[in-house]
Amino acid sequence: MYNLDGLRSFSVAGTHLGVVGFPITHSISPIFQNAALRAMEQEAPELKSWEYHKIEAPVEQLQSVIEVTRSKGFRGLNLTIPHKVEVLKFLDCVDAVAERMGAVNTLVFDKNGVSGFNSDGYGISNAIRQQFGVEIRNRPVVMLGAGGASRAACVQCLEDGCSELWVGNRSVERMQELLDRIRSYYPDRLIRGFSLGTEIPDCGSGALLINATSLGLKPEDPMPVQPEVIGRVSFVYDMVYGRHTSALVKCAKETGLPASDGLTMLVHQGKRSLEIWTGKEVPVDVMTAAVKTHMQNAAK
Ligand code: NDP
Fold first, then answer.
1. Can you name the residues that pair with 93 across neighbouring β-strands?
2. Best residue for ligand 1 mutational test, from 154, 172, 214 (most atoms within 8 Å of Cβ)
3. Strands (E), the chain
4. Beta carbons within 8 Å of 177's beta carbon, 6+ residues apart
5. CA-closest candidate to residue 86, choices 124, 123, 119, 57
6. Residues 22 and 81: beta-carbon distance below 8 Å
7. Would you put residue 100 in left (φ > 0), alpha (ψ -120 to 50) or beta?
8. Residue 298: its pLDDT value, please?
9. Which residue is closest in CA terms to ligand 1's atom 37?
C-alpha cells in the first residue's frame, strides 16, 4: 500500500494502476484486478509489466496523488470514498453519463490529460443481470440511499429504461437534492421520493430493490427499510458486501426472494475500469474466482 510520500519515491518500471481512498486498507480491488492482469498477459504479453496498487490518501491530497501518479507511469486510477465527487474539479474531460451521475470512479491518463468515467453504473446493471437473470428495462426500481452510490445507480437505472424509480433516504434534504438532479436530466420519467422508515413505496409488480445506503456494513446493522417493503418487491440487491450476510439479504431470502450482496457489482465495475484502461476484453470469471478464494481464506 502506498501513501503520497511513498508515491513520490516510487520508481518501479512498468505500467501502473491503483485505487485511491481513505481509508483503503479493506479494499480487495488489487486482488481481482491483478488476477485478471495475470490471466490477460497470457494473450497480451505487454500486460506483464502492469500492476494494480492500493493508495491511501485523504481528500486534500487527491490532486497531488493524480499529478504524482501521472508522472510515474500510471495509466489511471480508481477512486473510492471520499474522492468520487471531489475529483470532478481536477479533470480535463468527463464522460457524459459520469457527468449526470455527478461522480467519477475511474481516471484515465493520456495525452489528452485526465479523463473521468464512472463504472459503478455498469457494475450494478451487470450484477443484476448476472445474479437474477433479469434486465432493469421496464422494471420498477426502489432505491434506498441518496449518497454517491445511489446517484450513480439511479442514473444507470434511468439510462437502462426502468419503468419507475422510487428513492428513499433518511435525510429528506439529501433525497430532495438527488430527486431534483435526476428529474432535471430525465424530466419525462416517473421518479418519486419516499421517506425511509415511515412510507412504503407503491411500486408496480416485478420491482427491484437496491440498497445503496451504508446500513449493513456492520453485522449488527438493522435493515434500511421495514419488512413490509420487502413484500412489495421481487428482487433485492444490496450494494453492501462483507464477510457477514446483511439483515436485508437475510430477510429477503427468508421471504423467498432472490437476493444478493454487492460483491458482483464490485467485480463488474472493476472489470469495466480495466477494459477502459487496457482496451481489451477482461475475464470477469477470473476476477470472481479470485474474490471467492480471498473471501474463503479470510473466513478461515
Ligand atoms: P455515502 O456516504 O455517499 O452515502 C451513504 C448513504 O447511506 C446515505 O444515503 C445515508 O443517508 C445512508 N445512511 C448512512 N447511515 C444510515 C443509517 N444509520 N440509517 C439510514 N441511512 C443511512 O456512501 P456511498 O453512497 O458512496 O456508499 C453507500 C454504500 O454502498 C456503502 O456501503 C458502499 O460500500 C456501498 N458501495 C458498494 C459498491 C459496490 O461495488 N458493491 C460501490 C459503491 C458503493 P443520509 O443521507 O440520511 O445520511
1. 115
2. 214
3. 15-21, 50-56, 74-79, 93-94, 106-110, 113-117, 140-144, 164-169, 191-195, 208-211, 235-238, 259-260
4. 146
5. 57
6. yes
7. alpha
8. 86
9. 239
| Residue 264 Cα: closest atom of ligand 1 | 41
| Cβ count near 20 (within 10 Å) | 26
216, 240 in Cβ contact below 8 A?
yes
Coil vs helix vs strand at 76:
strand
The mean pLDDT values, 10 residues at a time, for the chain of 300 residues are: 97 97 96 98 98 98 98 97 94 97 96 96 98 98 95 97 97 95 98 92 96 94 94 97 94 97 97 98 98 89
| CA–CA dist 106, 173 (Å, integer) | 28
Q: What CA–CA distance (Å, rounded) separates 292 from 155?
A: 29
Q: Round to whole Å and give the CA distance between 244 and 43.
A: 37
Q: Atom of ligand 1 at shortest distance to CA of 241?
A: 41
Distance CA 238, CA 265 (A): 10
The model's pTM is 0.96
Q: How far apart are CA 113 and CA 181, in angstroms?
A: 28
For residue 18, the cross-strand partners are 53, 77
Joined together, the cell numbers standing for residue 146 give: 441518496
C-beta of residue 208 within 8 angstroms of C-beta of residue 137? no
All three cell numbers of 104, joined, read 467519477
* CB-based contact 103:118 (threshold 8 Å): yes
Phi-psi domain of 75 (left: phi exceeds 0; alpha: psi -120 through 50; beta: other): alpha
